[in-house]
Write a structure and sequence with these properties.
The complex is a heterodimer of chains A (223) and B (338). Chain A has 223 residues and is an alpha+beta fold. Helix content of chain A is 28%, strand content 33%. Chain A is built from 6 helices and 12 strands. Chain B has 2 domains: 113 residues; 222 residues, no CATH class. Chain B has 2 helices and 25 strands. The longest helix of chain B is centred in the first third of the chain and has 17 residues. In chain B, 48% of the residues are buried. The chains are: A alpha+beta (223), B mainly beta (338).
């Protein structure tokens, strides 16, 4: 998948070599606060995939997020309404070259960016369609896709690559100081020592657990 | 060759400007003033380069403030010397006055117009210009005086179509404006002025970013009068602007003292952004790279988030700054400061 992206980029760059090209960065990072899995352990490279793209339920950011939450237990629906731009698992490394660069800098901390040129970005119909659309980071455990977290930020769209000065960089920073951050699916655990962001188990499982606890409560009350 | 032409232009302009002060003892300047030259690389092939004004044009002279009215909103500075009325009109001879005495020495005000006994400046001077303060009158860099006016000025490509010409970005206080040389003269890409040879390049502490679309690199020989004493750069906000690092030797981001005047924040969206046309990677030469101070150190907005404190602000460097709120009077570190 990554190889095909690189080939496409190389071909496009060749076709548009005479145009004025500039670098475009689409970035996601969690550097100040770690991300932990549903059990509270730091996510690690090679075990989780972080998909960066956009959800297409609604053009309205709030309604889009509401639809994601409403369908959080239905992976098929979520996948059907998601446009992938790039993904990484932290093993890519950062060579600052065209394509995906990513690195886990500390337990639970990572950054990744897709480096393209404006001409490459605009020539890619899928990518270009996400311009001016909200950037989402969808983190999933490789062995259980239902364990996940979804993050976005108010007013943060993919860079459209239309202007080198104003539209060449987008960075979704998953951290407490980002007041625009939206934890669409997951838990912002401000009370923990790490002030971390936690993935949640499969919502259906969570509902079962809640249901089970409720049943226990009822039985106790009846007893 | 180019340097000789620039010096000639500057000399002629200075001679003309000197006539602005009709008679004045304090208009005398030292017979010998330090001048300097810095070679500034201009990268070609659709790349950006910055030119910061570490030199000025030849100053016109010094004047003394008298009978200053310290009232709110005052923009008029009364002078002991007699000027030629209208000689400092912004449209034809853009000039600034710089305070060289007092607590606010180093601040520059852009002259809007003048009478025989006063200058009217842009900006409120109420608490800044005291009676008996000394001011220096300095012509601002214009397209004509910095680059020249002939075809392909200073090696930049002229073209009647903006999309085919090299572009010079300057700031107008609210945002960036693009200019190009259309084979005949400098002009604004859109809007007025269509004739911009005498347009100021953002004042004494402004600067330019050049987008050289044409292939091939240039070395721009930037020469002028060496600035002396404290320099205070007005970074306006909220706005995207271009300012100069006025100390010729440059500095580093870490030593720049840009913070706390610029807002630090660990989230780039909440911090002020500094654009430089390079990074510590050779492959980024000529690319606009964004930096912000994350309350601990300088880092890139995107790409590897490593500590960028050692990154140089190069000699004759220009800074493109997105100041998101408020304004900042940025006091440049003088050459004797570490």
């Amino acid at each position: 998948m990554k190889k095909s992206i690189l080939i496409t980029m190389a071909l496009t760059a060749g076709m548009l070599a005479s145009a004025h090209a500039f670098d475009v960065y689409q970035q996601v990072e969690a550097l100040d606060n770690p991300v932990v899995d549903a059990s509270g352990a730091f996510i690690t490279p090679g075990n989780f995939t972080i998909r960066v793209g956009t959800f297409n339920f609604s053009a309205n950011f709030t309604l889009n997020n509401a639809a994601i939450q409403a369908n959080a237990s239905n992976l098929a629906v979520l996948n059907g309404n998601f446009t992938d731009v790039f993904s990484f698992d932290g093993t890519e490394g950062d060579s600052a070259s065209l394509g995906v660069n990513a690195d886990f800098t500390a337990p639970g901390n990572f950054y990744a960016y897709l480096l393209t040129t404006n001409t490459t970005w605009q020539a890619n119909a899928t990518w270009n369609s996400t311009s001016a659309r909200p950037m989402y980071a969808w983190i999933q455990r490789d062995s259980n896709f239902s364990e996940m977290g979804i993050f976005a930020a108010t007013s943060l769209n993919f860079a459209g690559a239309t202007d080198e000065i104003t539209d060449a960089t987008a960075n979704l920073q998953i951290q407490e100081s980002n007041n625009a951050l939206q934890v669409v699916v997951g838990i912002d655990r401000t009370a923990t020592a790490n002030n971390d962001f936690q993935l949640v188990p499969e919502p259906s499982s969570a509902l079962l657990i809640l249901g089970g606890l409720a049943a226990v409560g009822l039985r106790r009350r009846r007893a | 060759m180019k340097l000789q032409r620039l010096n000639t232009i500057s000399l002629l302009a200075a001679m003309g400007a000197l006539c602005a002060i009709a008679h004045s003892a304090s208009a005398q300047l030292p017979v010998s003033r330090p001048v300097g030259t810095v070679p500034v690389p201009i990268i070609g092939g659709g790349k950006f380069s910055g030119i910061g004004f570490c030199f000025t044009r030849e100053p016109i002279g010094r004047v003394t403030v008298v009978n200053q009215t310290l009232s709110s909103g005052n923009t008029t500075i009364n002078l002991a010397e007699t000027l030629t009325g209208g000689s400092l009109a912004r449209a034809t001879n853009p000039t600034s006055v710089v305070l060289v005495t007092g607590d606010n020495r180093g601040r520059a005000f852009r002259v809007q117009s003048n009478s025989t006994t006063s200058v009217t400046v842009i900006g409120d001077t109420t608490s800044l210009v005291a009676a008996d303060a000394k001011l220096e009158l300095i012509p601002e860099w214009t397209f004509a005086t910095l680059f020249g006016t002939g075809t392909n000025p200073s090696g930049l490509s002229s073209n009647s179509t903006a999309g085919n010409a090299d572009i010079v970005y300057i700031s107008d206080g609210t945002g960036l404006v693009k200019y190009f040389h259309n084979n005949t003269q400098w002009r604004r890409e859109t809007g007025s002025p269509a004739s911009a040879n005498n347009t100021s390049l953002g004042g004494l502490n402004g600067g330019v970013f050049v987008l050289k679309r044409s292939a091939g690199n240039l070395t721009f020989g930037f020469s002028g009068a060496v600035r002396s004493g404290r320099q205070i750069v007005d970074i306006v906000g909220p706005a995207l602007s271009i300012v100069s690092y006025t100390e010729p030797k440059g500095t580093t981001l870490g030593n720049s003292s840009l913070v706390p005047g610029l807002t630090s924040n660990s989230t780039a969206a909440n911090a002020d952004i500094v654009y430089l046309p390079y990074s510590n990677a050779v492959s980024d030469e000529g690319s606009l790279i964004q930096y912000f101070h994350n309350a601990t150190n300088w880092r890139r907005v995107s790409g590897s988030p490593t500590n960028q404190n050692p990154l140089p602000i190069r000699p004759a460097g220009a800074l493109m700054i997105n100041k998101k709120a408020g304004s900042y009077l940025y006091s440049i570190r003088e050459h004797f400061e570490p």
